[in-house]
Amino acid sequence: MSRILIVFSLLLVGAALAACSPALAQAEIPQDSIEAISPTATPLSDSAQNTQACDDPFDGATPAFNTSHWSTDFCQHSIDYNEIFSGGPPPDGIPPIDAPRFEEIASADSWLENREPVIALILNGEARAYPLQIMTWHEIVNDEIAGLPVTVTFCPLCNTALVFERPEIDGEILTFGTSGNLRNSDLVMYDRQTQSWWQQFSGEAIVGELTGSRLTPIPATIIAWEDFKAAYPQGQILSQDTGFSRSYGQNPYVGYDNVSAYPFLFTGEVDDQLRPMERVVGIWLESGEAVAYPYLRIREELVINDKLGELPLVVFWKAGTASALDTATIAEGNDIGSTGVFNAELEGELLAFSANADGTFTDGNTNSTWDIFGQAIDGPHSGKSLQAISHHDTFWFAWAAFVPGETLRSLEN
Fold it and tell me: Across the chain, what does the average pLDDT equal?
């Protein structure tokens, strides 16, 4: 419990520091084999904008969050308000990065250690890395890559790194901030244009006029800095020059991912198939079909060939990535490894994969060698890429809360 109190105190310190920082601006996918995404923001449909009046959206109850900061239409909501709690900081008290700066591999190599985790985003030939040593302190980066507006997000309390396309509404591209609130211990974001609230885990608007809308996910993965720079030597790295003073490289959530710990501000029931803080890789399709694989299984098998509905998929695991939520210095965190999730079908052929001792993978069809990014680096398929699938690298309690049901595929089942 003392560690949780430390985390809470540090969040409040971060909020105080943010108040002393310059004011934030209030407005301002995959692999190459995937069909190119148009470099423009996608408009949200008019039907996503709801209008409904109500006398008291909280039915006489006092919500566990502050409403005084907001012009949000609280009459519109898809969840019970008793599921939302204040995490401590005010809106943007954990400040998003709205004008990200990037640097080259050689420069970033002076302050990033090989095992440090970064969010790797590859889109239409461009590659960017967002170090968790920065994301832990900011949680959201409003960016544009290959001409596409995106928001790169990381919720430390759920260990979810997710990237979404930033859509357009009424001629404006949405920008996202941190609401200071949590639901199922997961980041609740808000957009500055309508002040609707969005669940980071699902990309769904849960409060406000855009309630029911969903953001389009873009595949991304947490990977070791060493692996990113080897695969993408021309890649760009989010700079520590953020305009804010933070202890980049230090972990404000020391010991949080202890498998015997309990999640912060989580009040829901925990599915007892796994301990709450055990890591899983979850795939959640737009159709609603979902599956989760425990890290314990993935680390033992190294590669999983499976099928979700009609989608043939493969999950890769590679050692060498530090946990961002373990030790005080992120680079010294426990080796939890990294994962990649891909469509196992290439050019109409279903590939079956096995793992190699050096962290690469081989398909039994052609004996081509593949890396953790789903790129063929040797053999007949050399130069080709598997289609990346958006996935959740997260804690079991969060997955089970947002995707309840029989989704777990452990060694036993």
Answer: 89
Using CA atoms, how far residue 146 sits from 36, 135, 173, 225, in Å, is 10, 21, 16, 22
Residue position matching structure tokens 């425990």: 294
Is residue 167 a contact partner of residue 175, using CB atoms and an 8 Å limit? Answer: no
Strands (E), 195-297: 197-199, 204-207, 217-218, 221-224, 236-238, 279-284, 290-294
Nearest residue to 180 via CA among 168, 169, 195, 165: 195
Reported as a single tens digit per residue, the pLDDT across 180-206 is: 999 999 999 999 999 999 999 999 999
**Token representation of residue 114:** 């090989």
Backbone angles phi, psi at 331, to 5 degrees: -60, -20
Task: Tell how strand 126-131 and strand 236-238 pair up.
Answer: parallel
Query: In whole angstroms, what is the distance from residue 59 CA to residue 150 CA?
Result: 36
- Rounded to whole angstroms, how far apart are CA atoms 26 and 223? 31
Q: What is the pLDDT of residues 223-278, one digit of tens each?
A: 999 999 999 999 999 999 999 999 999 999 999 999 998 998 898 888 999 999 99
Which 3 state secondary structure label does DSSP give 238?
Answer: strand
Closest CA to 392 of 381, 407, 412, 370: 407
C-alpha 151/C-alpha 236 separation (Å) is 16
Check: CB of residue 102 under 8 Å from CB of residue 29.
no
Q: Are 344 and 350 in contact (CB under 8 A)?
A: yes
